[in-house]
Structure formats: C-alpha cells, structure tokens
Amino acid sequence: MKNPTIVVVHGAFADSSGFNEINQRLLADGYPVVAAPNPLRGVNSDAAQVKALLATIEGPIVLVGHSYGGAVISGAATGNANVKALVYLAAFVPDTGEAVGELVDRFPGSTVNESLRPVPLPGGQVDLYIDPRVFHERFAGDVPAQEAALYAIAQRPATATAFGEPAAGEQAWHTIPSYNLISGADKIIPPALQEFMAKRANATVQVVEGASHMVFVSEPGTTVAFIEQAARETAG
C-alpha cells in the first residue's frame, strides 16, 4: 500500500525550514512530503490557501500543523476526503468562532503576549514578531542557543488579524481523527490548553515532558514516530 503524503504547515514566527529534519526522516522512511506555505495573514484566508494546495495532491494525506498552523489545518482539511489524519504539534485546535488570541489566555502560563514586537504596516495592519532577545528562552528553550538564534533571525511574522480572527465554518477535527503531540514545557501555548483542546477533539495524545514549543526541532525522532503512527492507524 502506498504511503500517504505528509503535508506540513508551519506556524507563526517560523517558516517551513524548521521541518527540515523531520522531513528528511519521513522521506527516508518512504513518505512523500509537501511543505505548505502559510501566509500568516488571517486564519481563514490561510486555511483557504492550504485547502487549495491539498486539492492538488492525489491519494491519502496526513496533515500536520505546528502552533498557529494547527488552526490553519483545522479549516483547510474540511471537506477533503483524502485527509485521513490531522497531527497537531504543540498546536492550536480552535473550534468554530474561536480565535487563537483568546484561546491562549484561557489557561495561565503563556509568555507570547509579552514577547511580541509589533511592526506597523502601511494601511493600518500590524505584523507581530517574537522579540529575538527572548526567542530562545520562551519559544525554543530546549534547542541549542546558536540554532535558536538562527530561527529567531529567520522568523516570519503573523498579523495581529491572524491572532484575533475567529475560525469560520466547520473545523475538520470534528470528523477526521486527530493526534496531538503536546510539549510539556511549552511557554507559548500552555500544556494545559493543549490538553484541553486535545481532549475535546478526542485525540490520540502523547506528551513530551520538558519539550519547548519547538518540540519537532528538539525531538525529531519522537515527532516522526508520532506522525507515522497517525499514518499507520488511519491507513485504508
């Protein structure tokens, strides 16, 4: 049986290069991989762009999202029968009408709001970055400092709209099996919030104790095994 295509969707303050190590391992294990560009402009328009990409992929798909990318895949997969599993890596899993900005405040422990550096844009929009001075400590605490510094330099901003916009329409986790890899020492999305979202989605859960928000970078072997578990269990 042909392996499903693994489609990875990065979150805010990141780009697809963070997936390089897990992509390399997935390819070595015989899985086709697609890294979907995430515009980070608004959760519903971002989901629509990823949805359009998914429509061009033949055969079964395992859709993977990190952080804000989790909110994007929850909208992008709706209505696509080829998507067999949703894998959330330290990710937001909103329901209809919820915004990631309000979700993150439901449980204590997030440092994201105090870490943001705004950049006003022409036309009134605002781009948000993680202040590079705190990126290592708060976003990537278990990643080597020199490597984390490079991720801080290369980060892509999300708009304030992306965090404040409620998810529209049916969210795919209501109908597609979901798998949540929870980072146990996350300072961006509190582990308690990750666990709440996973529980209401009736997800298969694995907690990586001590892992930062960049669990897929610091624990690539664990992450790949979890994605491949989702692929095996939803095959057919």
Note the topology.
Elements: E1 5-9, H1 20-28, E2 33-36, H2 43-54, E3 61-66, H3 68-76, E4 83-89, H4 100-103, H5 112-115, E5 116-120, E6 126-130, H6 132-139, H7 145-154, E7 158-159, H8 160-164, E8 178-183, H9 191-200, E9 204-208, H10 215-218, H11 220-233
Parallel strand pairs: 1-2, 1-3, 3-4, 4-8, 8-9
Antiparallel strand pairs: 5-6, 6-7
Helix pairs in contact: 1-11, 2-3
CATH fold node name = Rossmann fold
Distance between the termini: 9 Å
* Integer average pLDDT: 97
Number of helices: 11
Pick out the low-confidence regions: none
Integer tally of domains: 1
Per DSSP E runs of 2 or more residues, the count of β-strands stands at 9
CATH architecture: 3-Layer(aba) Sandwich
The proportion of residues in beta strands is: 15-25%
> In which range does the helix fraction lie?
25-40%
Cα-based radius of gyration, to the nearest Å: 16 Å
Pfam family, one: Abhydrolase_6
Domain AB hydrolase-1: 6-224
InterPro entries: AB_hydrolase_1, AB_hydrolase_fold, Sec-Metab_Biosynth_Hydrolase
Protein name: Alpha/beta hydrolase
Would you give an account of this structure?
- There is one protein chain.
- The protein has 236 residues and is an alpha/beta fold.
- It has a single domain, classed as Rossmann fold (3-Layer(aba) Sandwich).
- It is 38% helix and 19% strand.
- It has helices spanning 20-28, 43-54, 68-76, 100-103, 112-115, 132-139, 145-154, 160-164, 191-200, 215-218, 220-233; strands at 5-9, 33-36, 61-66, 83-89, 116-120, 126-130, 158-159, 178-183, 204-208.
- A hairpin with a 5-residue loop joins strand 5 and strand 6.
- Helix 2 (43-54) crosses helix 3.
- The longest helix is centred in the last third of the chain and has 14 residues, at 220-233.
- The mean pLDDT is 97.
- This is Alpha/beta hydrolase.
- InterPro entries: AB_hydrolase_1, AB_hydrolase_fold, Sec-Metab_Biosynth_Hydrolase.
- Keywords: Hydrolase.
